[in-house]
Write a structure and sequence with these properties.
The chain is of the alpha+beta class. It contains 13 helices and 18 strands. The termini are far apart.
Length: 399
């Protein structure tokens, strides 16, 4: 938008794209004429002292960008300047504005993720739960964006103007009718739907599953994404327990467009596994289990090798179970402590088949086990059950 002032024309670009002010000023300076524009201002994306922060560049010196005050530009123009929230900062919305119009009611358009989910929901699925799960997540993403939009309007409306000047002129808002969009409260139905999508071999399942795993990984019956080197002895032993299988959508997400891949399932835990590369320099990628399969298989030892491996008394080996969003690690943490691994190991010492929980891990993790795991250990170190139980029984300074 171009605004006439006593100093000349000030052009405001309603974008937060980095370098936009300088690029436009340079384009105007190199053209047949600058159209009377002396300064180009672009939004910085934050709040300044007297309104939305502006990055400016003069057509006389385009490469030199500097901060300009919204309140100063407002005084030069002679009346409040319109401002659009980011989700409504589109040409079709801005072009509707004319002086005297108070506010435009506009719709937040679906983004790429929402469009992908709604397109997938229109596909044929073997059960209704998959369609319900896809629609629910699409509605959730739309509601989140509208909530963010309303929060942005509130924050800029309350703080985005000069303390002693006019309030910020918000030129567009989202309609309120029909919002928020309905959600499904039955987590069991949603979990069943995502299991159907994850186990599907339809091409249409890949992209929505990738979105779903990013947004709410807890809806799948697996733990966190884990990658381990193929050269580790514990990994090689575990690999012998795996069964080759045809790839599912979940395998495809784990493969992440890698070329030399093979697909497996761990029959004991049911977790999906992908082998990347065929040499010893390759890697195994999988989702950790939430629990070990045998409640009667006593924990014999823990092996520290890329992740925490659990070896049971019957000689089998498993990746350590873990909750989504967490990960198992050890060693000096630079101020952090491996409370996740300490608490998981403690729970498995008591009940090998329990579904692990990391709630309140900072207060619940045994201090002695945490201190033991917080030390440096050689790759592949095996900690026998007796050492783990002894550490768990100790206080910090006794380990």
């Amino acid at each position: 938008m171009d605004w006439e002032t006593d100093l000349g024309v000030v052009r405001i670009l309603h974008t937060t794209r980095r370098g936009a002010a300088s690029a436009m000023a340079e384009e105007l300076a190199e053209g047949a004429g600058s159209q009377g524009v002396i300064t180009v201002c672009a939004l910085y994306g934050d709040i300044g002292f007297s309104g939305p922060a502006l990055v400016s560049a003069d057509t006389a010196q385009p490469p030199l960008e500097y901060e300009a005050q919204w309140g100063l530009v407002t005084r030069l123009v002679g009346h409040p300047l319109p401002w659009w929230p980011s989700e409504l900062r589109r040409s079709d919305v801005i072009s509707q504005w004319t002086p005297g119009v108070t506010v435009t009611i506009a719709e937040v358009l679906p983004d790429e993720r929402e469009s992908t989910l709604r397109k997938a929901a229109s596909f044929w699925w073997p059960d209704d739960a998959a369609q319900t799960a896809l629609t629910d997540l699409a509605n959730s993403l739309r509601n989140q964006r509208i909530s963010s939009l309303n929060s942005e309007i509130r924050i800029f409306g309350e703080h985005g103007a000069h303390p002693h000047g006019d309030p910020l002129y918000i030129a567009a808002r989202h309609r309120t009718e029909g919002y928020p969009l309905p959600r499904t409260s039955d987590r069991d139905v949603l979990a069943a739907g995502w299991r159907t999508i994850a186990s599907s071999r339809f091409f249409e399942a890949y992209e929505p599953l990738e979105i779903g795993m990013h947004c709410d990984p807890g809806l799948l019956p697996f733990g966190p994404h884990t990658e381990v080197s193929a050269r580790g002895p514990a990994t090689r032993r575990w690999a012998q327990q795996l069964a080759p299988c045809a790839p599912t959508a979940l395998h495809a997400v784990l493969a992440n467009d890698a070329q030399d891949v093979t697909f497996y399932t761990d029959p004991a835990t049911g977790i999906p596994v992908v082998r990347k590369g065929s040499s010893r320099q390759g890697a195994w990628v999988f989702l950790a289990p939430l629990r070990l399969p045998d409640r009667d298989a006593r924990l014999r030892s823990v092996i520290l090798e890329d992740t925490v491996w659990i070896q049971t008394a019957d000689g089998r080996i498993y990746p350590g179970p873990c909750t989504p969003g967490d990960h198992l690690w050890w060693g000096p943490g630079g101020g952090d402590q491996p409370t996740e691994a300490a608490l998981v190991i403690s729970q498995l010492l008591d009940d090998p088949g329990a579904e692990v929980s990391l709630a309140d891990r900072w207060s619940q993790a045994p201090r002695g086990l945490t201190k033991l795991l917080n030390q440096s250990h050689r790759y592949g170190t095996e900690l026998p059950r007796a050492a783990l139980e002894y550490a768990r029984a100790q206080q910090d300074n006794d380990v």
